[in-house]
Amino acid sequence: MKYQRRESTAGIPPGSLGLPLIGETLQFMASINSGRGFYDFVRVRRLRYGSCFRTNLFGETHVFVSSTESAKAILNNDGGKFTKRYIRSIAELVGDQSLLCAAHQDHKLIRSRLANLFSTTSLSLIIKHFDELVVQTLSRWEHRSTVVVLDEALEITCKSMCKMLLSLESGHELEILQKEVAQVCEAMLAFPLRLPGTRFYKGLKARKRIINILEKAISGRRRRSSGREAYDEDFLQHMLMEDGKASSEEAHRLTDAEIKDNILTMIIAGQDTTASAITWMVKFLDENQEVLETLRNEQLQVAKKTSHKSYLSLEDLNEMPYASKVVKESLRMASVVPWFPRQALQDCEIEGFKIKRGWNVNIDARSIHVDPVVYNDPNKFNPPRFEDESMPYSFLAFGMGGRSCLGMNMAKAMMLVFLHRLITTYRLLILKARAIV
Ligand code: HEM
């Protein structure tokens, strides 16, 4: 308490900078490998120092903030004081041209091109395909006594991303891509040591192989379109067609590097997040039988209305008000993306503390999601809470502002489809819950 006071008088957020050079990197890595998940590092310091604290990771100063006011100021970014910033190792894995890492001007351009892909038509297509995959997967569960929900969810979300982006549906190439993407995802949380045998090194190699696969896919598509062959209706094809249209305005073309980095980004951004969210949702429902019963009643009604057709449509999902709140409440409690990284572009002040230019400022969304000032009884799984209007910047599962999630509607739709099929096909019995972060 004394320490906090002394530091705040100096105007710098409280906290420990740890050892020279490495700061608290070892403690951060230890929390990743502890089984408690990487957020534990933040949780412990948030309790010790309060809603704004500072640490040093990988040789850089990081500040964590967790009030709705600071989230608003940073995510709105009116004065252009902040830019998005991932640690260098993540940027190397997803690529410099990835939407996740691109600098402000490039980001605006790439985002506007990618946003066009997330149309209602593509949402309807993904709902149909995802439903098909879920129905197939659940039918296979009939012959098994137990299933690991996270593994099954990862498999279907990856397949569905690969179909939507590249029309890859089955076969050797899909299997390879799934394996390589899993390696890149693992490397994102590894210590960035570029030594053969390390997880980070394996991730970089996997990235290279994925880029090769994408290069081949792009040249294959170009050959086919020059021969006037039929083309696939997927994101890659749309990006290449836009590419052709934009050739007169050279400045607006997505380069091949941008296409490749962003296809990889979308697989990574969409697969693990959605699979984790589905898994948490199943766990929360098992722990809250009353909610499950209300949900089951709603879903059986939907099942009655849709029994004449094979797959769900976007309109059917709009008939699921209670399930939508279950999805939202699961996302609040799970906070699958626990914090959002930014970098201060100028000296500024947050929550009364001085922030220096160049510091990393992370918005701790998970803390906001469980703050009793923001949410009444925050640890209770209570979907109807979303019937009342919530405080601005209090629901941050998909971020907000110019960097918010592009796949938000897609992710919510996938969660609803999974929920509908699971609830109307099986009764849940969770044998063992593992922590997933
Ligand atoms: C439940 C699932 C998901 C969650 C919780 C989630 C969450 C998020 C969050 C919090 C951000 C913004 C982070 C920030 O402001 O720094 C984000 C960005 C992004 N997400 Fe998602 N996401 C999910 C699914 C998806 C899907 C399915 C896709 C699409 C394929 C996707 C694509 C993206 C992309 C491309 C960005 C970067 C946007 C930008 O920087 O302009 N996400 N996501």
From TrEMBL:
The reply on keyword Iron is: yes
The record, for Pfam families, names:
p450
What is a GO molecular function of this protein? iron ion binding
- Classification via InterPro entries: Cyt_P450, Cyt_P450_CS, Cyt_P450_E_grp-I, Cyt_P450_sf
The record describes its membrane topology as: Single-pass membrane protein
| Annotated signal sequence range | none
The UniProt annotation places heme binding at C405
Q: Which UniProt keywords apply?
A: Heme, Iron, Membrane, Metal-binding, Monooxygenase, Oxidoreductase, Transmembrane, Transmembrane helix
PROSITE patterns referenced in this protein's UniProt entry, alphabetically: CYTOCHROME_P450
**Gene Ontology terms, cellular component aspect?**
membrane
List, in alphabetical order, the GO biological process terms annotated in this UniProt record: brassinosteroid biosynthetic process; brassinosteroid homeostasis; sterol metabolic process
Give the cofactors, semicolon-separated. Answer: heme
The record's subcellular locations are: Membrane
Q: Which family does it belong to?
A: Belongs to the cytochrome P450 family.
* Protein name per UniProt: Uncharacterized protein
Organism whose genome encodes this protein? Carpinus fangiana
